[in-house]
Amino acid sequence: MMHVMAVSTVSDDGKFWSGLKKAHAKLPKGAKWKLAVGSKDGAKAVNIITYDSIDAVRDFFEAHAGAYAVTEFFEADAANAVGLPR
To answer: Which pTM value belongs to this model?
Structure first.
């Protein structure tokens, strides 16, 4: 299991978060959504999802919110993070 960071530049704040709310209800078995936060102006968002691979998170995330943001995906460095389990 890894922590995958999804860092998004959002083009349509309302549709982006609506899509993610729908996605949350359809998480793949074993996945856990740890964090979902957006900037006050709605232009940026950071989500952290634990799952088996970055590619699986990317596919899932893009299917629900990809049309409303450009998102980059990274494996989080949990050993040096504050607040994430190691």
So the answer is: 0.91
